[in-house]
Amino acid sequence: MAIKKPVFLAVLFVIIIGFVVVTSMEMLRITNPRKLEIAVVLKTNNIRSDYWQMVSTGIKAAAKEFAVNIDITGPVSETDTAGQIRNVDEALVKKPDAIILAATDYEKLGPAALKITESGTKLILIDSPIHTRAEASLIATDNTEAGRKAGIILAGGQNGKLFRVMTLSGNKQTIAEKERESGFKEAIANFPGVEFAGSYGFDGTEDAAYEQVRHLLAMYPNIQGIATLNETATLGAARAIKEKKWEDQIKIVGFDSSIYEIKLLEEGVIKATIVQKPFNMGYLSVETAVQALSGIKVNPKVNIDAHVITKENMYTQENQELLFPLVEK
Predict the structure, then answer these.
(1) Both ends of the chain: CA-CA distance in Å?
(2) Domain tally for the chain?
(3) pLDDT at residue 79, as a whole number
(4) What are the TM regions of this chain, as residue ranges (predicted)?
(5) Domain of 293, in residue numbers
(6) Do residues 279 and 58 lie in contact, with contact meaning Cβ atoms separated by under 8 Å?
(7) Beta bridge partners of 98
């Protein structure tokens, strides 16, 4: 059957745009004898953080692909905002062409972001937004949709039976956690019989999450589901549930995929975990920076889908690659 003219023209347009983008980036490599310098400031550069080391792996892969120089820094702890601001200042002294930043704090990194753009340096944000909106592009997990997925997997299959759930996150909720909670509440509102028992916080450590869940279980023994909105909350809640041997009574849906969470998934202590794609995020951040520096208009917001992993699907090849990525140390 002949292709209709409007369809043919649309396909042709997409091909031409793709060719122009590729050609522009190749010309940038050929005509610019100096390699582009891109500074990367992560929330943490701690080698014990599987998530951020996987982001680094994606960044390094893209840097090799696009022939750019990168310098990756970041504080030891994700809560060291002052340390991250120093990292940004140190990066600016070297006058890079672009800075890729995963901001530890929505408000406090605002002045640093403005300083970057005022210096003429391109700013690409990853993982978390900043209130200034000074960036060329933000590349992050769609956390609202990830929260919806957590709500659906936790509340689904109840057939209208009473099912009480709560959320657990840090006392100082990140933007990501707020979005996850919002998406979670939207999802469970569509399930008759599911009752939201409230949002609860803890002081940021696994021990604090464990103690908070022990306290909550004593106060609300009829809780049947907990959405833990970060890795620390997941590990602390799981420890409290295991201690009481309530794995069959209380369902936990968590976030991220540390080796400890994978073990809990295998044991059936947590029902599911929502896994992000940090390699993709890292790779896209460098690709986007190179495009912006070559004069190509970049997408101001790039959403990356999260993936639901359960005990039943964790052994597929795709999910094994997400759970056990080859991280460069």
Answers:
(1) 54
(2) 2
(3) 82
(4) 6-25
(5) 35-135+277-305
(6) yes
(7) 38, 122
